[in-house]
Write a structure and sequence with these properties.
heterodimer, A: alpha+beta, Gyrase A, domain 2, 2 domains, 6-stranded antiparallel sheet, elongated, B: about 0% strand, disordered N terminus
Amino acid sequence: MKTVGELLRSADPLGYESSWSSQQRLAIEERVLASPHAGSRTWLRRTWLTATATLVLIAGIAVAPRFSSSALQAAVRFEVRLAEESPAPDLQPAIILPSGRAIYLHEEAVVTNADIAEANVVRGDSPSTFGVEVTFDAEGAEKMWIATGNHLGKPVAILVDGEIIAAPVVRSPIGDKAYLTGDYSRAEAERLAGGMIGQ
Amino acid sequence: MSDQSVVGAFRAEVRSHQPTERLAALFGAHADRLYRLARRLSPTADDARDLVQETFLRAASALRSMPSDARHEEAWLVRVLVNIQRDEWRKSEVRKRHAGETAPALNQQSNTESELIARTTIWRALDLLSPRRRAVVVMAELEGLSISTIASLLGITAITTRWHLSKGRRDLARVLKARTGEAR
């Protein structure tokens, strides 16, 4: 009677079939490097334009949420959590602040303040309004990418001081940036950004 | 809708490496290791090559959000590979297909055929495991990695890793015993 490990080792295909050939390896490498995303400058320019267009579009349809005063105090607790539209035993019900819509949060946060590398004030959709651009560090970006990449078509909740300020549906994996837009004054946006990184 | 007022977007800054160069470097550093893992997570070599290609295509579309050091790069790629395999596994009916299989009559075949059937039977039993659990079993039993290394590569805790390994071994032992009369 053999152990599972012994049986697996006896059946391991790498033990009896040849590895991929150099031609097979090269063919895959060429296909990967020829993919649209691998082209450097064109790709970067396109990405920037896409991101900008997305922001403009979103800003145009946003009904600027405003934070409560507690959310704008010096230490701002920031979290991103995966969420679901329907209840389940392990999920925590919550209300999205701006809309009053119910949502169901996963227990663990994907990223928190500890994963933020930078939080900067950016211009909003009009000259007098501002938002905050949150940049995650490498580990935070990786966590966001993995988590949201496996959560497409479902909402992700952004919490500030425990309140859900928004819950956009994930359309594509989110990388190292998130933008908090709304009709904040520069002072509000600066306090929010500073609070996020513990200033 | 105000719910949509926060949006994630990729950073559009130029890093020290141009995307093509970085992608080529990634491929050079990790392709062979990923192929070995992919082959052990796939029923055929063709499937394994497709899996590696898809993993690097995902990497190509997300280079800016990838960690920059080799250790985290590897973990990132391994997780993407396992996630792709998980998506495929969910879509396919592999589990159901193999769950109904009966043990081949090994003693009625020639030695060579018997060995081939035995190997195939054992290997196909792995299809019953979810890709993550299969990855844990493969990494522990065939790659000889420690629990902490597997946990780190897959982004799960050591406790979860041990649980997957224990459950995977038990499930495999049960199936292999039924199909081949071996395994403990």
